[in-house]
Design brief:
It holds the Pfam family Helicase_C. By secondary structure, the protein is an alpha/beta fold. The chain has 14 helices and 15 strands. Helices cover 35% and strands 16% of the residues. Helix 3 packs across helix 4, helix 6 packs across helix 8 and helix 13 crosses helix 14. The two termini are 18 Å apart.
């Protein structure tokens, strides 16, 4: 499969892809789209940043463009479930981008904002509804949404939805859908809970796996710094002041810590914004807009944003706190090295998080190189015999593994500021 034209997508879709500069499908797109065009159920295992949104959006849009009929009032033809507001918004935006030459009706439903516009959109019915499970069930309960006509169900980032406790919500939603439907489940990892969910939802599914579950993207250079908790803010500032850091995400474990780190960075002269579940939707959207435009250099986020940030040119991810769930490490660092670029993931580890570090290294199947030659290192660094990597740009000695893939583009798009991949 060498081009999108080989996938036999409809002309309006090929025109939109050409205008975006997308010429060659990524592995998940080349693997999944032919099955989905045949109407098969599908289990897709792919890391973030590999182009899986287009892998399901394009064949769905092809179906809508070649089998035209209006969605019923309060209903939808396609339902996409996503774990976070940010991811839901980005999926909706991708449908708009690829379907720009179609007469596509769509809306996105999530909490944290007033429901008036969402109710108005659903009153007329839409082709594509992208929703977070909580608000969706709320609007169903109020009688504003009817799922009895859904033709295609997509569960995106299914493992994240289960991590966030949405399994009962998902099962409630599925119980309201027609039995005759096409079902797509995408996940970055394949724990037992996902296998059980897939067994209950999918009928004779095709399986497309482009990288082994829980491995890290090939182009991400990783390092860990042993830093006492009291020195983490100073160490983070030191790292961010490197000229190699163009745009960065700093992950914290707690919401209040994200606020404190962002405030410290701003006082230190670094443009930074915090984003987490306690922020209003308007504040989160403003923070993301500033980050995408470059007005904000650093986004300080909790794990709610680990899969909801789709910005190609994030040069560095810093784990101010290591995650206490090993799979979350993979999703966090997947925010860098997107669309074929290289990136850095540097973690600060205090004494209490050493066990979490060991769990992460077991999860990714490799040790993370230790960087001990820095002014804030703790005594824990002396326990490592590994050579430190060179922090910064190309030429570092961070470990590599896995096999992520960015979107290939036509030569006219190479080097163009803001050029994007098929997300």
């Amino acid at each position: 499969m060498t081009s999108f034209a080989d996938l036999k997508l409809s002309e309006p879709l090929l025109r939109a892809l050409n205008e975006e500069g997308y010429t060659t499908p990524t592995p998940i797109q080349a693997g999944a789209i032919p099955y989905l065009m045949q109407g098969r159920d599908l289990l897709g295992l792919a890391q973030t940043g590999t182009g899986k949104t287009a892998a399901f959006a394009l064949p769905i849009l092809h179906r809508l463009s070649t089998h035209r009929h209006p969605a019923p009032a309060r209903g939808c033809r396609v339902l996409v479930l996503a774990p976070t507001r940010e991811l839901a918004s980005q999926i909706d935006a991708s449908f708009v981008t690829y379907g720009r030459h179609m007469r596509l009706s769509h809306t996105v439903v999530f909490g944290g904002v007033g429901q008036g516009r969402q109710v108005d959109a659903m009153r007329r019915g839409v082709d594509v509804l992208v929703a977070a499970p909580g608000r969706l069930l709320d609007l169903i309960g109020q009688g504003h949404i009817d799922l009895s006509t859904v033709e295609v169900l997509v569960l995106d980032e299914a493992d994240r939805m289960l991590d966030m406790g949405f399994v009962r919500d998902i099962r409630r939603v599925v119980s309201m859908l027609p039995k005759e439907r096409q079902t797509l489940l995408f996940s970055a990892t394949m724990p037992r809970t996902i296998a059980e969910l897939a067994d209950g939802l999918l009928r004779d599914p095709a399986k497309v796996e482009v990288t082994p579950p829980s491995t890290t993207v090939e182009k991400i250079r990783q390092a860990v710094m042993f830093v006492d908790d009291a020195n983490k803010k100073a160490a983070t500032l030191m790292l961010l002041q490197s000229p190699k850091v163009a745009r960065a995400i700093v992950f914290t474990l707690m919401k209040h810590e994200a606020n404190k780190v962002a405030e410290f960075l701003v006082k230190s002269g670094v443009s930074a914004e915090a984003i987490h579940g306690n922020k209003s939707q308007g504040a989160r959207e403003r923070a993301m807009a500033g980050f995408r435009s470059g007005a904000v250099k650093v986004l300080v986020a909790t794990d709610i944003a680990a899969r909801g940030i789709d910005v190609d040119d994030v040069s560095h991810v810093f784990n101010y706190d290591l995650p206490n769930v090993p799979e979350s490490y993979v999703h966090r660092i997947g925010r860098t090295a997107r669309a074929g670029r290289e990136g850095w993931a540097i973690s600060l580890c205090d004494a209490e998080q050493r066990a979490w570090l060991r769990d992460i290294e077991r999860e990714i199947g490799q040790p993370i190189p230790v960087f001990a030659d820095h002014p804030h290192h703790s005594e824990a660094a002396k326990n490592s015999t590994m050579r430190p990597p060179v922090l910064g740009g190309g030429g570092g000695r961070g470990q590599r593994s896995g096999g992520g893939g960015g979107q290939n583009r036509s030569s006219s798009n190479r080097g163009r500021p803001g050029a994007r991949r098929a997300a």
